[in-house]
Amino acid sequence: MSITDTPPARNAAAPILTGSGAILASLEKLGVTDVFGIPGGAIMPFYDELMSSTAIRHILTRHEQGAGHAAEGYAVASGRVGVCIATSGPGATNLVTAIADAYMDSVPLIAITGQVFSTVMGTDAFQEVDIVGITMPITKHSILVKTPEEVPAAIAEAYQIATTGRPGPVLVDVTKDAQQNSAPFIWPPKTDLPGYRPVTKAHGKQIIAAAELLSTSSRPVLYVGGGVLRAEAQDELARLVDLTGAPVVTTLMARGVFPDSRREHLGMPGMHGSVPAVLALQESDLIVAIGARFDDRVTGRVADFAPHAKIVHIDIDPAEIGKIRQADVPIVGDAKEVLVELLDATTGLGKPDLAEWWTRLDGLRGDYPLGYTEPDDGLLAPQGSSSGSASSPDRRACTSRAWASTRCGRRSSSTTSGRTPGSTRAARARWAIPCPPPWGRRSPSRTAWSGRSTATDASR
Question: What residues does the Thiamine pyrophosphate enzyme central domain cover (predicted)?
Fold first, then answer.
């Protein structure tokens, strides 16, 4: 759903809605069908409106942090924006961890919080917290709404910012009087985002330079991050691998974007990754980073990381390029669009000869396979359960997602694969993608999960 839908005829009278009704109507107009949260005093007017909605399902969580993480998992699994709701004060501050996580992992998230009456803001009123100020460093944008007239534009802007460019969280803090008072509901609203112009199309000369480096390299590696998953560029990535024959390493956030069953996939890089993936990066002469940010868990000491490699860095966020490792060819743009152009530019340059490189990589795979020693005391090794020997592949038990990701093979390159199973992660995503319940702790209730604070119960 777009915020630029055809506006109503000018002679049509705009409906009068309360501010909370405008929040609900705006979410419905944007195509939101599921929200996660907990009611409280400052957000209660919105929950009164939500009770009458047949278009939006509310999932009640046991804790606001669980609501935020559930909305995150929903967004990652479905490709849609996640929405979480909390009241003012402690309710809002409980969302901070989830908001920060969404910011670090580039997850589209809208956090809607209630706030005290605008007339008592700044007086240390009951459960008053400056959540806009608190979340400014960990959101793409934070919006304070004090009147019902501002609601449609605030929600529309939050949606636009959260889902465009590099995805991320946006907080909308709505005072209680703005929720209770009424105003005409005008949709689509007039939005004003000065300076917000995400770059999606790359510079042509940079594409050509990257293609020439890739075609002449003797030890290239495609270092694939979560940006490829967010851009839904898995098909373009697969075509680039077919065209060049280059090996692929995928970060934790990109797991599933390229199937583990492909010979070109070396695994996950970094301290939790495989030896072939780590040494491939270290010994390469060219790293093509696509939607990755050279995280310290991948690079280790930056000065010693891939000392002989030239860097092609593709990212939609210009702030990421050159932040950790200087790029020889910086490319700002959407990963899907950039890969399409890179494919066109590379097609006529010929396939590089990587026979010697693959001999080295295959040798590393043979020398350092992923394995473990079977216990001799009759107990079950965790590697055995996560590899599917103790259960079907869809019901694996996993503990640390980083640890498990190296052992739970990803067989699909769809945007909904690559998510780590287990009670916490699965409880987040089960509302977005119906599937058999994973192997995790459950309460006797059909819809109430007891995995930490992610217990969910469908309600309105």
Answer: 209-342
CA distance 238 to 340: 11
Q: Whole-angstrom Cα distance, residue 178 to residue 393?
A: 49
Amino acid at 57: R
Place of tokens 């956030």: 253
The 3-class SS string of 230-284 reads HCCCHHHHHHHHHHHCCCEEECHHHCCCCCCCCCCEEECCCCCCCHHHHHHHHHC
**Do 16-184 and 204-367 agree at the fold level?**
yes
Q: Distance between CA 114 and CA 117 in Å, rounded?
A: 9
Contact 151, 144 (CB under 8 A): no
Q: Is the preceding omega at residue 438 within 30 degrees of 0, hence cis?
A: no
Helix, strand or coil, per DSSP, at residue 57 = strand
Q: Which amino acid is at 50?
A: L
**Domain segments of the chain as ranges:** 16-184, 204-367
The 3-state DSSP class for residue 327 equals coil
Span 352-402, pLDDT tens digits = 999 999 999 999 999 998 877 888 888 887 776 655 444 444 444 445 555
Which among 137, 133, 143 is positioned nearest to 111, based on CA atoms? 143
Cα 107 to Cα 163, 279, 305, distances in angstroms: 9, 30, 28
- CATH superfamily of this structure's domain 16-184: Thiamin diphosphate (ThDP)-binding fold, Pyr/PP domains (3.40.50.970)
Express each pLDDT in 201-210 by its tens digit.
Answer: 999 999 999 9
Percent of all residues in the chain with a pLDDT value above 70, rounded to a whole number: 80
| Exposure on the CB side of residue 21, measured as CA atoms within 13 A | 12
Q: How does DSSP assign 186-242, residue by residue?
A: -SSPP---TT-----SPPHHHHHHHHHHHHH-SSEEEEE-HHHHHTT-HHHHHHHHH
Taking the model in full, what pTM does it have? Answer: 0.84
Please name which of 196, 137, 146, 190 lies closest in space to residue 172, comparing C-alpha atoms.
Answer: 146
Burial class, 281, CB count within 10 angstroms (exposed 0-12 / middle 13-18 / buried 19+): buried
Question: With contact defined as beta carbons under 8 Å apart, do 273 and 434 qualify?
Answer: no
